[in-house]
Write a structure and sequence with these properties.
Elements lengths: L3 H7 L10 H27 L5 H25 L5 H21 L5 H21 L6 H12 L3 H4 L3 H34 L3 H14 L3 H8 L2 E14 L6 E7 L14 H10 L8 E3 L16 H13 L6 E8 L4 E6 L3 E7 L10 H11 L5 E6 L16 H15 L5 E10 L11 E8 L2 E8 L6 H12 L5 E5 L21 H20 L2 E16 L1 H40 L1
Parallel strand pairs: 2-3, 6-7, 10-11
Antiparallel strand pairs: 1-2, 1-12, 4-5, 4-8, 5-6, 8-9, 8-12, 9-10
Helix pairs in contact: 1-17, 2-3, 2-4, 3-4, 4-5, 5-6, 5-8, 5-17, 8-17, 11-12, 13-14, 15-16
């Protein structure tokens, strides 16, 4: 059964990435051909004029020229509206216009209805997507003017057709404002801002990276206390050369550059400035759900300050052991010294989604029956498309406890801990700015490698390919992801690495990972191992407001699913009826 969160998330499926400029111009030419052919077919139906190749080419050229000039003019005059985005909208307009031209078989008035519908389309795109509050009417009128050179091809009575189109545009505009009213009322009541403004801010972030939404989020923030766990590996004799693992028990969302979405990169950059190098700062996913999405990206300072404070009071040990434990379905991998332990929690290859903060605390307390200070890391390494959380009372909680118990009871020996690291930064849409970081551990004859990917999860199939390739190299490993939502800028809010990747691209990335592990192996050297925890206060979405946001989005979508088409259809019928009367 689809949950409320699933339904809200599915709304983002309509956002997609546009092709390159050259491809867009080619598509624009094809859309102009559609218009030209539709005009020719209309002439054949209405006047019995045979379709002539020469007329087709002339009409094609006229439509294409209008399309490109309009797109260039609007993008040149507006910094917010890029050429590619305007061109894409015009291409869509050409396709809609072609459909209404073909419908003119039932009356030329239907073409005027189509022009009116496209009038409000441009108004809507300018207002919502590009935030042009005052220029939206101007843009719609400009589009209308650019259709006038084509109108003689639609109808022999140009003046009457222009009047028809104006009537249709006004009626559709009234209908659009009714739809706006339906959206604005519930959103303003809950969040203090109109729904149209909220949607406009969303697109402003999506396309231009603005952070106006953070101001709205701040109005309903909830202040919470949470842990920031820090693990340090200090090279013996080189105390200034250290590797830092940072595990804030926060969620890296909501999306783009808002809130905590870019925290894996920002934390590594800020901590790296005074504690360890950027390449040597690993930021992991703690035990937290979307309720713990930070409100402000500037709150990264609270985490970095906590990390610096923790490192100052940290005690170090030189011996450790690699631990592995399994429950019925869950598994735990990590390290343990005499006083400290690191547990990476995974349910892979079954879905491994967010673990609720309270569950993380329970697992931490359970692990501390066996060790002084235990750090819980959510590996978040099996994204199957299911949006499930490990919450209090879930059978998985007890299975994780079983895996932790088995891990600490495992009869592995303490030995001098050696560590080597390497990082690289592939240019992939599904990998964030923190890239892919490798940490290889060795204790006696045992080795274990952590591949940390700054991504919004990973598909189980790709994870299995990576681990199998490393096993062939004699390396025991596990993949972790940050679950960053910074990469959720193209389509939807589930963009795991491995999704949509060609097999050749997967193999190429796997070879890069293997090469990086080999470099890390060459860098192996003895280290001291220490861990500490700090408590911070931070503003987050919180469960109540997150639920309200999801509920409101679903309610609006449910209403508009039927109301918007009904209103637009009514506008079209009223327009058509008035034209027939005139």
């Amino acid at each position: 059964m689809q949950t409320a969160a699933d339904k809200a998330i599915s709304l983002t499926d309509y956002i997609f990435k546009l092709p390159r400029i050259g491809q867009m111009i080619g598509i624009a030419l094809i859309s102009s051909l559609f218009v030209s052919v539709s005009i020719a077919i209309t002439d054949f139906w209405a006047k019995g004029i045979a379709i002539a190749p020469g007329a087709l080419l002339v009409n094609l050229a006229l439509s294409f020229i209008l399309t490109t000039i309009f797109s260039f003019l609007v993008s040149f005059k507006s910094k917010r509206m890029k050429f590619k985005h305007v061109l894409a909208t015009y291409i869509f307009s050409n396709i809609v216009l072609s459909i209404f031209l073909l419908l003119s078989y039932f009356g030329i008035e239907l073409v005027a209805v189509g022009v009116g519908l496209l009038f409000i389309l441009w108004f809507l795109i300018a207002r919502l997507v590009f935030g042009q509050v005052y220029k939206a009417p101007i843009l719609s009128c400009l589009y209308f003017i650019f259709q006038i050179p084509l109108m003689p091809l639609f109808s022999s009575n140009l003046l009457l057709f222009v009047i028809y189109s104006l009537i249709s545009s006004i009626i559709f505009l009234v209908g659009l404002f009714v739809i706006f009213w339906l959206i604005n009322a519930p959103v303003k009541r809950i969040f203090g801002v109109t729904g149209i403004s909220l949607v406009s801010m969303f697109f402003a972030q999506w396309f231009r990276g603005t952070k106006e939404l953070e101001g709205i989020f701040a109005k309903f923030a909830e202040n919470v206390k949470t842990y920031v766990d820090i693990i340090c590996f200090r090279h013996k004799g080189k105390k200034k050369e250290q590797v830092t693992f940072i595990v804030p028990h926060l969620h890296y969302g909501p999306f783009g550059n808002l809130g905590g979405s870019a925290f894996p990169h920002l934390i590594a950059r800020e901590v790296g400035a005074g504690v360890s190098k950027y390449d040597s700062t690993f930021v992991f996913h703690g035990t937290a759900t979307h309720d713990f999405n930070p409100i402000k990206s500037s709150d990264v300072e609270k985490i970095t300050e906590a990390a610096r404070h923790a490192i100052k009071k940290m005690e170090f040990e030189s011996k450790a052991r690699i631990i592995h434990g399994k429950g019925d379905e869950c598994a735990v991998n990590g390290l343990a010294s005499g006083k400290f332990g690191v547990c990476m929690l995974t349910h892979a290859p079954k879905v491994t989604e967010d673990i609720e903060f309270s569950v993380g605390l329970a697992l931490k307390n359970h692990a501390q029956k066996f060790i002084g200070n235990a750090v819980m890391i959510d590996a978040h390494n099996a994204e199957t498309g299911e949006l499930t959380h490990v919450e209090s009372g879930s059978p998985l909680v007890f299975d994780y406890q079983k895996a932790i118990t088995n891990a600490f009871h495992a009869k592995t020996k303490y030995a001098a801990l050696e560590m080597g690291t390497f990082s690289f930064y592939p240019k992939l849409d599904t990998v964030g700015r923190a890239g892919i970081k490798i940490s290889l551990f060795k204790t006696g004859k045992d080795n274990f490698c952590i591949i940390l990917i700054d991504s919004n999860g990973i598909t189980p199939g790709f994870r299995n390919r990576i681990l199998a390739a490393l096993r062939n190299e004699g390396i025991d490993a596990e993949v972790c992801t940050t679950d960053t939502h910074a990469v959720n800028m193209v389509r939807g809010v589930l963009n795991p690495i491995g999704s949509g990747m060609e097999v050749n691209d997967m193999e190429l990335l796997i070879q890069q990972i293997i090469a990086s592990v080999k470099i890390a192996k060459k860098h192996l050297s003895k280290v001291e191992f220490g861990a500490a925890s700090e408590v911070i206060e931070i503003d987050v979405f919180g469960p109540k407001r997150a639920a309200e946001l999801v509920g409101t989005a679903n309610s609006i979508a449910a209403v508009l699913k039927w109301a918007a088409p009904a209103i637009l259809l009514a506008c079209g019928i009223i327009s058509y009826a008035l034209m027939r009367i005139i």
